[in-house]
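ARCHIVE CARD
Drawer: 12
Card no.: 0347
Subject: one protein chain, sequence and derived structure
Cross-reference: see card 0346
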Amino acid sequence: MRSAHPGRRAVRLAVATSLCGALMVTPALSAFADPDPVYPSQHQVDTAKAAAASTAQRVAALDARYAAANASLAEVQMRAAAAAEAFNGAQYELGKKRAAAQAAGERAASAQRQADAASTEVRQYAAAVYQQGGSLGDLEAFLSSKGPQELLDRASSLEAVGAARNRTLQRASATSVVADTMRRQAAQAEAQQLAAKQRAEQARSAAQAQADAAVAATARIQNEQQAMTAELAKLRNTSVALERERQDGLRAAAEARAAAAAAAEQARLAAARAAAARTAAARQAAARARQEAARQAAAARAAAEAARRAATHPTTRPSPRPQPKPKPQPKPTPPPPPSTGGGVSAVLSYARAQIGKPYQWGGTGPDSFDCSGLTMMAWRQAGVYLSHYTGAQWSETDRVPISDLQPGDLVFYGSSGESSHHMGLYVGGGRMIEAPYTGASVREADIYRSDLLPYGGRVR
């Protein structure tokens, strides 16, 4: 057999060598390669999850801070409104003390005029006696006495004093005593007026301080909320405008939940009142039934006794006495109906026309209002003169349950009507027109809030 050509043998050797090298290199490369590559890696996934969780936690924390800032702002505004109404209350009391002082002063002046007239009458009497040549006698004691009371004491021991002269002296003494009493009362009333004026000035300063604090706190809180909104937009990869809308939505939802809770509480109170009324009516009906049963039993006993007497003494049969009719039970007095016609219509029209005007503590229009100033001026359009103070308007109106409100009624907020710090004018449908707080404007709003009192006020 012939040998292969030397060139071909060389080629075959080179190919074989290459194949062997390839077989030897492939396992080595496989040893360094990842048999199942993953993109992204588990580390990257864990990192991303941690970052997302951190972002969510940060967003939740910022949302909570934003809501807390809203609550702080509402608290500051409430304190400012309460201080404003405290000033209105101090002004209201000052007005009453001023009127009392004026009346006391007029009474004192009238009493002094009567005392002066009585004293003049005594002196004229003495002058007449002197001109007639008579001795002044005991009148000298009057003219030299220290006062009418001392005169009366001395004159009573003088036998020469006649009845007419004694009556004159008594009148002079009495009018002098009355004048002294009236002067003391007038001085006391003036002191009370001065104290009320000082309290009003202190209340004015406190109201202004609270209003200034509310303005400063509002600016500070709003700046903080703007910074939080920008951070939220960055964390959530949205815009500041969208985040602001989101926060407004969250606040509106929170207010809606609070309003729903307040409405539910008012409904519960209304149901409790209705149940109590039914229970009271049932008790009254039961009492009337017991009284009627007792009356009928007494009548039956009387009839039996009459029959027994008739059987024993047939010739003496007394005429039957008519039974008295039961007295009708008084019905509970419902609250007076709301004013109708042009009155309420004018009140509501005026209030609606003020929407958009700024709140100003102590304001009664025409350019700005506080809460009681708005309701006062609204009802003045119907010829009703309420006082510029929530506590006074509570006293000047009749109580009506919130469930029975009618347009034109007043709603109050606080721990009690006498100390209420806010109020509004009911327009129907669970809505009111109010002058809310410093920095806001007259607006229409929901009546249901956590401090809504269960009774409103109906103008008499």
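Annotation on reverse: The first strand starts at residue 397 and ends at 401. Residues 23 and 348 are 99 Å apart (CA to CA).
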